[in-house]
Amino acid sequence: MTRRISIFGATGSVGMSTLDLIGREPDAYEVVALTAHRDVDALAQAARAHHARIAVIGEETRYTDLRDALAGSGIEAMAGPQALIDAACAGAEWTMAAIVGCAGLAPTIAALRTGGTVALANKESLVSAGALMMEAARASGATLLPVDSEHNAIFQCLAGSRFEDVSRIILTASGGPFRTRSRAEMGGITPAQAVAHPNWSMGAKISVDSATMMNKGLELIEAAHLFPIGLDRIEILVHPQSVIHSMVEFRDRSTLAQLGSPDMRIPIAHALGWPARIATPCQPLDLTRIGRLDFEAPDPVRFPALRLARDAGAAGGTAPAILNAANEVAVAAFLDGMIGFLDIAAIVEDVLSRYEVIMPSSMEDVLVADAGARDLARHVMERLTV
Length: 386
Ligand code: NAD
Ligand code: MG
Hints:
CATH superfamily of the domain at 3-146: NAD(P)-binding Rossmann-like Domain
Mean pLDDT: 97
Distance between the termini: 60 Å
Number of helices: 17
Oligomer: single chain
CATH topology of the domain at 3-146: Rossmann fold
Shape: globular
Order of helices and strands: EHEHEHEHEHEHEHEHHHHEEEHHHHHH
Largest sheet: 7 strands, parallel
Radius of gyration: 20 Å
Bound molecules: nicotinamide-adenine-dinucleotide, magnesium ion
């Protein structure tokens, strides 16, 4: 029995880890579609290696390059945003949503509407349009499996339990590379320093988000959609070793935790095998070597992104989409060397304080808020950099 699967964002960190796992069991999977943003060579190589039926490049202008790179392979080349949506409806039973940013929203919703299984890494789509995505999944009967390591841990801890028996979710955070830095020191941080995460190897955007702790803020909102126990019952706990990936406390005060080496192939394999388990090549957890696990409260003064995200999550409506859009623009500008590290949260705060929040009734409403908040973020940034 083979399983038809597609990977959105196949050339990224999560996408490549997913390909690594399926490449170890090639007879178990039939690859329907692989997608990438601009990297034609990496996409064509992956599509050939995994015998994909379709390869989609997000950037429309790269269509002929992709077609040429796939010449003679029999793999169909497609390009552009609509092609990403079409590929999401091309017959996969299991889809990995691993595009980075709100750019993943439309294909992820399209995949959910097919009623199949969606393994969700692309947290920005859930942050921006959580209510709509959960509703799309409910309406089609799709199965949404969290891949973000914390949410995958929570999902595992919740197995067999009822939401009403949960008293708290404890979302663990590594604290990122600047956990012990003062705010004054953070002012001079370079992009190279920010992307060097102490425990995880990840794409550039999420690495910067981990450094500002906006990643944990986005994950707080993500958790509130996936596990509806109320935002105020989801707590963040800094745990520098990244061994406990999150915990669930029940009303009897029993607490369950999920542990593992910091390797994304473990939560990806969980989503790939679910409800069964599949073997991975990952390192077994060696607690004797690790020796100790440390915990501390997060510092909201040095990491204002935590407060901004909690407030946006509590405000609801388009506030999380605005938060996310401003953050995406600010992180890209930081990576381009245009703004400083501390400017990221300052820009997000400024945009959030000025952009009107509405209750979105469709994905289009979310995309309008996303585009408007991006424009405002660029405008705020121009004033900052003159
Ligand atoms: P990455 O930057 O390594 O890869 C992103 C992928 O998305 C690439 O294939 C890229 O081509 C594609 N992409 C980027 N912009 C696009 C666009 N506009 N249109 C179409 N495709 C586009 O990112 P990553 O680290 O693999 O993260 C992917 C997602 O998974 C993010 O939402 C991230 O928050 C989440 N996530 C990642 C990790 C991790 O360990 N890397 C862990 C948890 C969650
Ligand atoms: Mg995570």
